[in-house]
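User: These chains co-purify. Model them together.
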Amino acid sequence: MNLRRQLIAVSLLLLSLPWAGCQYLREMERTLRSGQEMAVNATATAIASALTEKESLLYPTQRTAALAANAPTLAIPTADEPLFTDGFGEDWRLQPHLHALRDTTAGVSLYRAISGSWLHVLLEVSDDEVLYSTPYRQGDRAVVTCLDSLGARRRYLIAPEGPGLVSTITMNGRRLDAPLPLRAVWRERQGGYALELRLPVDGTCERLALQVTDATETEELPLFDSRRFSNGEIPWLIYRSEPFEQWLRVFAQPGRRIMVRDSAHHVVAVSEGDIATSSNDAEVFWLLRLLYRSALGGDNSATGDSRFINYEEQRPLANTGTYNPERWLQRQSGVAPISIIERQVPIDGDPHELGSVVVQETTERYLALTDRATGRVLGVSALVLLTAFTGLLFYASLLSWRIRRFSNAARAIASDAQDPRSFPRSTFQDELGDLSRSYAHLLSQISDYNRYLKGLARTLSHELRTPIAVIGSSLEHLADDETSVQQRTYVIRAREGLERLSRIVTSMSEASRIEESAQNAPISTLRVDKLMQDLTEAYKASFTEHEFSCAVPSCEPIQGNGDLIAQALDKLVENAVSFAPAGSTIAIALRDTADHLSIEVSNTGPLLPDTMASQLYEPMVSLRDENADQHHLGLGLTIARAIARAHGGDVQGNNLEDGSGVVFCLRVQRQPVEQQPG
Amino acid sequence: MAAQIAVVEDELALAANYCDALRQRGFAVHHYPDRAAAQRAFGEALPDLAIIDIALGNEPEGGFELCRQLRSQSRELPIVFLTARDDDIDIVSGFRLGADDYLSKTISLVHLQARVTALLDRTAALRANNGEPTELERGHLTLDTARMRAAWRGEALNLTVTEYWIVEALARRPGHVKSRQQLMEAASTVLDDSTVTSHIKRIRRKFHEVDREFNGIETAYGMGYRWLDT
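Assistant: Joint model of the two components:
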């Protein structure tokens, strides 16, 4: 795992930022919710206390609260759409909340609704044979009994003489003249007939009962009596009163629903604020909301009195048939899950409770608020994360680039390809910069030390040369003088020893001298193939104990210094000769590659040890037997390498593949690096 | 009158040996152990030839300084550096200061004597400035064997005695390969191979200074060098 990845992994800690934001938002949402709960509570309490004084709104008829508790009632739902008194039931069935009361034994369905200031009733009756009235006999008929709040009874008899608008209606046995107070339409339908009525809501009909009589040719049967839905009594009609709802509208707000129930839990007024009129024109997309909700934890709807609407719990309301909360909610929220806050407050009366006020509010308002905030928090955190990631990535790249630069430089220096002084010294004032400077300092010290070691041989040879000269010149004087034969022998031995010492001293500084002169050697066009052929001939003459083979193809001339290359080849051949057994063949070959010439000298003999591979080229390293008679300072390969490097190449020694000996390969570049002319 | 030779050398034993060897040849030799003593003496009278070590006492380059002063006093006085230092840079500096030769201390006394004699002869011949020059002509090369002067295409070459001897040895037998050993003998010196190589290098450079196209000295790799008549 590299540095960059590590830093990026660490930067994942930044993800706690949006988490913290969400925690904050949850807190905020909780606060908003409790604020809204308090507001709902306050609204409900205000309405309830206002209604304490407004009993007449709650009970517009003479029916008292006490009566309402025991009296039979019939709930009349309010139609959303206008109903046409035409005897067809389709407009009713389009509004499913206007559901029917059914008498299955009689096969009668009773629909009823309030629309505007009209009371609509639809009776659907199963009848095998529809019998119309004639002047001589009565056919199928319905009796509508209305009582006003004081108990004054009106009994309408509807016995049509044919299908369509019923024109003859009797009230309390007296035939009514036009205009009729109620409109009735009789319509035959499959398996029976339908009777649709429209009565004015004018206080004359606070209680209502319907009876249906089925007539045949021979007999008359009472088929249906609506009183069976209300314990045989004529029930009070319970419906939402228009004035009350108008009064209630003052409290209406977008996303708020207010219901007032009487003491028998009948809903007598509903005020619905439409959420579509609220200020949230930028409705939050439900998928985003789902995301926000899950980001905020989602358990928020289970607190306090609010909850997701559970329609089962609304059953006492739904049963009345006066309104359908499901529809309201669906209209308000579309398909997204919605949570509401509900508060029910009793309306105090004397001596009885008058009823209760229920205030429901969708949490949409503060949800929208927190959704927007969540969106902003998520957006800002995304931006922050992106910035931080980019910054960290850049920073990590910079760090890793710097470290890589150091490590590359160190590797190059370790592999001897670069001057230790070229190690980059960072100018940064940080730990890495310090490290690089310390490293550069260390390397320069090492390189100084190396240079000291190299110079040591040279200094030593200089220092030794003077005493050698003293001894040499003194011996010369000794030899000149008249000396005995015996003394002369010693003088000769001393001179031999001195010559040997002198050679050692010279070769000690030879390597560094050649390194120096190789740098300044004049460059000229050089035919390496010819040079090698000439040299091979010379070697044959010089090293008579060995055979020489020469495989040199002709090649293009290169730019180089012939003296130096000849010297390098000399060293390789001397090396080979000293290791190869007498009589064996030393092979000299030239290989021509695209950018290098490769001069190879191979000989049979002992193999190179694995351990000293890289030290072979250092001065004073020799693999020769220590008892060998000839002194050897192990400078040959050092010199050859110095010359090869001055020509942009190198020297490499390897064992032959068949294990019979070693091959040394001297490479020189075809186009040597630009050099200072000497 | 015997030629006056000044030996400036801080290594007393070595100086004594040199002085003895030169005196045996009949020269009048004076030894000065440091630069101050030498300068005082040279202020009074100039020697006929000066042999100077580069490092003098605690002055690592005292010899160079002395050489510069001597040269300012006399343009013709032969100056020989005799030193343990054999770096190219020292040799080049020495010649740049006007030294006539640059010898390693490993040189044998015999060779030193031969060189001193030759330098004195050459100076005498130059001073005499009479008589027909003994000349050897090889193509564009003209050698004045008495004065040990060489010229290429009529332009004088500033060769040291050692270099002159090498050129003469090569030019006497054009086309013949002279081995390094032969060249060393001709130049009255015992040097290692690489020193011969650097002598040849310097000779070529001096030829190049007057003629960039010069290639009269050819390397016979593994054998030596030969003169090519052009």
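The longest strand of chain A covers residues 118-126.
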